Amino acid sequence: MAVSTRLVDLVQLRIDEFLSERAPLLARVAPEVGELLDYSSSLLRGGKRFRALFCYWGWQAVGAGRGPAEPLLDDEGPVDLDAVVATASALEIFHAAALVHDDIMDNSDTRRGSPAAHRHFESVHRAGGWAGSPADFGRSAALLLGDLLLGWSDELLDEGVAGLASRASGIAARQEFNRMRTEVTVGQYLDILEEQSWLTHPESELMSRAHRVIVFKSAKYSVEAPLAIGASLGGASEAQLAALRAFGLPLGVAYQLRDDLLGVFGDPEVTGKPAGDDLREGKRTVIIALARTGLPANAVRVLDELLGDPDLSDSQVRMLQTTLRESGAVEKVERLIDHNVLRAREALADAPLSRAAREQLGQLTDTVTQRVF
């Protein structure tokens, strides 16, 4: 994975350069807005960079790099490499924007072990002794930060595709990016919709509705779209795009199912968020839909009563975790993960993609789905 490691370094360098380039503009507006840049720099440092990696290997998969051998990332690299790094970096900035907005909607306290954006700006307000509500200021400032990051992701994408040798490839990549942005936004809407409207839907629909949220809020945006964007940068054929989608969607579903398990059972030292955070937020995930089918009526009533209570105690979280395990839902989710990983591997096996990329995508399949609690 030496190439992937080098790509992560290049993406971090490009993000740092981009933020440095925007610093003079913000400084000319007012010194106080430097707080937006400082928090952005902190949020955009580190992370798993899965979207950047899938973008790069989507590009390599269609033969746009050095050919069948594992490609190198160096000064002698292919002419479009800078465009790919810029596009991969734009995806990471877009992801940061989505995280900021997601934490506002979920009322989350932390992100990657640090205060979530709205909590950070709330503390800035409180430390300054300003007028008004710290919580209101924090939410408003974080909302604007998310919007700023969305705009910046567009700017960096435009810079990337403008440097491509093929204008048609740039247009295709932009179209894929636009589709991703729409899908993840409406997927977020579906997520908050299900948290509030689940009681009005038949029990038989809860599983399919939870799966729909996974597909549009996460699976496409985390894996399928970055692959398609990268492949489009490389002038992918329809057959290559279809193969990458057939691989990316089930892998994205498996990735989010694993993330859902981490949201309930994850170690805060690993996830950067409190244990049982999804339980306090009331996420109507696949694991919850499955648990409801495996529990007696009285246990379902307790689950429904407690799920979504932001003041759940640690003991109540542990009780719900035990309930979910005893329902058999955890084992069922693990089987769903295995099923989707198998589908992804089968799609990759004979795909019309470069050998090096297929090998690296196979390794990434393990990386994104075998994270431990």
From TrEMBL:
Single biological process term from Gene Ontology: isoprenoid biosynthetic process
One Gene Ontology MF term: metal ion binding
Keywords: Magnesium, Metal-binding, Transferase
Keyword Magnesium: yes
Domain of life according to the entry: Bacteria
Known cofactor(s): Mg(2+)
One family name in Pfam for this protein: polyprenyl_synt
UniProt cross-references to InterPro entries, sorted A to Z: Isoprenoid_synthase_dom_sf (IPR008949), Polyprenyl_synt (IPR000092), Polyprenyl_synt_CS (IPR033749)
Membership in a protein family: Belongs to the FPP/GGPP synthase family.
The protein, known as: Polyprenyl synthetase family protein
Organism field: Galbitalea soli
